Amino acid sequence: GKSVLITSHTHNAVDNILERLPSVGVESFLRVGGEDGKASPAVAPYCPGGSKHRAETTKDLQRLANESLVVGATCYAVANNPLIARRECRRAGSSSVGRFDVVLVDEAGQMTLPSALPPLLRAETFVLVGDPKQLPPLVRSPRADEEGL
Q1: Are 104 and 75 in contact (CB under 8 A)?
Q2: Is the domain covering 4-146 a CATH 3.20.20.60 domain?
Q3: Does the keyword Transmembrane apply (predicted)?
Q4: Where do runs of H (alpha helix) occur along the chain?
Q5: Which of 4, 100, 101, 139 would be a feasible disulfide site paired with 145, CB 3.0-4.6 Å?
Q6: Distance from chain centroid for Cα 83
């Protein structure tokens, strides 16, 4: 099967999608970046070290990341988490590091371009999902706002 990265700028948006996967037959996925209590209770078992993914060594963690076809993480985790950066995607005759066949970006209308780039750069194909009536990105820096970020 194809490897899929599910991402958004909020933990809640990522978890909303991941929570629905078992109901459509996806029983195994990995939630990266929610280990410190940021993942929803329904998704927390799918974090490294959770009840669905026992890993005792860094080698176990990397194997878990490499073998998971579906990975969920915020855009920040995609940019900064070594499990994603070092993830090896092996297919017949090829290997790529840190890449996914498909990257799904939810709430894309609420993201700034800099926060969207890390997941998009990991994609062979990407899908941007958003609502045209969604709130725009929240920018807290007057200078960044002036420069269009």
Answers
A1: no
A2: no
A3: no
A4: 11-20, 58-67, 75-80, 82-85, 113-120, 142-146
A5: 139
A6: 11
